[in-house]
Design goal:
- It is found in: Cell membrane.
- Its main location: membrane.
- One of its GO terms (molecular function) is glycosyltransferase activity.
- This protein is of the alpha/beta class.
- The protein folds into two domains: 173 residues, Rossmann fold (3-Layer(aba) Sandwich); 178 residues, Glycogen Phosphorylase B (Rossmann fold, 3-Layer(aba) Sandwich), CATH 3.40.50.
- The protein is built from 15 helices and 13 strands.
- Strands 3-2-1-4-5-6-7 form a seven-stranded parallel β-sheet, with helices on both faces. Strands 10-9-8-11-12-13 form a six-stranded parallel β-sheet, sandwiched between helices.
- Helix 3 crosses helix 4 and helix 6 packs across helix 9.
Amino acid sequence: MISGGGTGGHIYPAIAIANAWMEKHPDSEVLFVGALGKMEMQKVPEAGYKIIGLPVAGLQRKLTLANLSFPIKLLKSLTQAKRIVKEFDPQVVVGVGGYASGPVLYAAQGKKIPTLIQEQNSYAGLTNKILSKKARKICVAYPGMEKFFPADRIVNTGNPVRKDLLNLEGKREKALDHFGLDSNRKTVLVLGGSLGARTLNQGVLKDMEQFEKDGYQVLWQCGKFYFKEMAELTEQSGLKHIHVREFIREMDLAYAAADVIVSRAGALSVSELSLVGKPVIFIPSPNVAEDHQTKNAMAYVTHHAAVLLKDGEAIGNMKKEIDQILNNPDLVESLGENIKKLAKPHATETIVNEIEKLVA
């Protein structure tokens, strides 16, 4: 049983683990448990797996009416999680973070079923810290996680990533053709996550005329919440080399096309980008618990493996940072080489090995 979700950063690692497990153990049955109304309820069935949704929701940091229903939803989710665990009777339960993982792992631990936590970030969330006390293994992607978890149960595996990202060789021409890009222009790939990032979108809008004038083209994943507005503004501008997309499914081709990448610093994005080996500008989101995206990014910046641009300084400065990189071939090469040194391409297989030990 695999539980968690809420964002692509939780869902895609979970699917990667399930795929790798089923490759080795095709006769197994895998059940996902997610949160009703969240991305996993669509993405998991698309990947070919069954999922059950719980009514659980997060506690808002601000005082809102939604918080009044939090205890009711939590209790209901705990009751349902106990029933699901009892009926499915899993040999092991994997929690990848997100609202649903709390009730499900709590229920499994209550029945003495082995649990494994996969913590993607450099700063552990409260739920995982609580669950780690009874978890058999905690798979992490960053050093120093013993400040959150019992040291004797930590395994530094890295984060699971999509298999098609492990080899981008020879895909550039196909990528340019797929996205309708010009082979004579440098490609800037802008990634704000599946839902979108206002700062990154405003940054592209601010600089897009200059991007085109200076011979760049932008492949821009603006996110679900912003697509309609960004598409209209791009169309009104009459610019031919600003390619706006709500969501990019073919991420291997997007990475293959890119000369430089501008991205939020969610854990999955950071792990994927280390495999890609291209120059990256991280613009961490300030709207996450404990500012963990900045911590994720700094783990790379301190190794001269990426550039950090603060969210509050991004609009109006994005293109300057891109120019500084692309006008310096030595910097392009060193950033690409240094970020690849931090990659963990076998993370998914290592996690599957740890799950096997718990099932044995």
